Amino acid sequence: MNLIQRPRRLRGSETLRKMVRETRMDKSSLIYPLFVMEGTNIQEEIPSMEGQFRYSIDRLPYKLEQLAKAGVGSVMLFGIPDHKDEVGSGAYATDGIVQKALREAKKQFPDLYYVTDVCMCEYTSHGHCGVLCGHDVDNDKTLDLLAKTALSHVEAGADMVAPSDMMDGRVAAIRACLDENGHNTTPIMSYAVKYASAFYGPFRDAAGSAPAFGDRRSYQMDFHNRREGMKEALTDIEEGADIIMVKPALSYLDMVSEISKAVNVPVAAYSVSGEYAMVKAAAKMGWIDEERIIGEMAVGAYRAGAQIYITYFAEEIAKLMDEGRIG
After folding, report:
1. What string of DSSP letters covers 94-144?
2. Of 77, 81, 158, residue with least CA distance to 127
3. Residue 268 is inside which H or E element, if any?
4. Positive or negative CA dihedral for 129, 131, 136, 139?
5. Which of 41, 69, 194, 277 is the most buried (most CB within 10 A)?
6. What DSSP designation does 9 have?
7. What is the pLDDT of residue 57?
8. Coil, helix or strand at residue 14
9. Of 300, 306, 254, nearest in space to 279 by CA
10. Please, what is the end-to-end C-alpha distance for the chain in angstroms?
């Protein structure tokens, strides 16, 4: 057969396939989420996230060392406090769990890059992401507390802050607070396109952050909406966001793609706890090839347009890159 176009010509060997690869990945783009808690000598497995743990501060360096050796240079810290109250005071306390973890981590592993989640749901007694007015979250009263939280993280050593609360105006409030206090070079990665998703279930188990009543649909986005996600991203950029995040990743790659084409800042995709849990559960049953699925999910996010991938599989992905199986 006289075929001029033969796409298979460029698939004939591994060397050639890598040479013409359209999507390329690097360890420097990986961020690993870490849960830190009060107490000593604790490394507590999260029941719904096999292989993921909550660490007390004294155990945290062991995990940071593993990540550094694997070549994963960035972590995102989530705090689990002992005490919760109506206004989430542990989120912005000088001796809060994240603040203490940052100081210790920076002392022992100063070359790692520390991103902190800025929200109040782990710290409020009601489990919502801000101050309540009756049964509703008061958007504007919450902004000052989010800004205080971000500032306390940066003063404790955070390299970047990542507000995940989905309050209107929180990026502007945080940017103004950081700038006024001399931290105008600290970047903000905004959870701009964060959908009200069932994929967050295991995280709420891990962080103890499930709301005591109602849900978060009045501030997290309706997953039916595409234009709304674009509006959120563009609004946050106008307010000073340096990186835009789409969360979750797997079911929202269309949003990763659209936003990456529309904005002039880097785009991050967060492969969330439910995605992790499903892969682990199916692999345990022998229904899937875990390593290949991990690789495909990661490549899918990058192919869609993400430059940053936040994932509980960061170490495994780094290993696959070392072995030349993805990259």
Report:
1. TT-HHHHHHHHHHHH-TTSEEEEEE-STTTBTT--SS-EETTEE-HHHHHH
2. 81
3. strand 267-271
4. negative
5. 194
6. G
7. 97
8. helix
9. 300
10. 35
Q: Which residues contact 36 (CB under 8 A, 6 or more apart)?
A: 54, 55, 56, 57, 60, 77, 78, 79, 80, 97, 98, 101
Answer yes or no: are the C-beta atoms of 67 and 315 closer than 8 Å.
yes
Q: For residues 87 and 123, is the Cβ–Cβ distance under 8 A?
A: no
In tens, the pLDDT along 29-49 reads: 999 999 999 999 999 999 999
CA 54 and chain centroid, separation? 16
Is residue 23 within 8 Å of residue 303, measured between CB atoms?
yes
Residues making up the chain, counted from first to last:
327
Continuous H helices in the chain: 14-19, 60-70, 97-108, 139-156, 170-180, 201-207, 227-239, 253-262, 273-284, 290-304, 314-322
Residue ranges for the chain with pLDDT beneath 70:
4, 207-216
Among residues 59, 115, 120, which one has the least CA distance to residue 92? 120
Structure tokens at 13: 């060997």
Give the active site residues: 194, 247
Please tell me the pTM assigned to this model.
Answer: 0.93
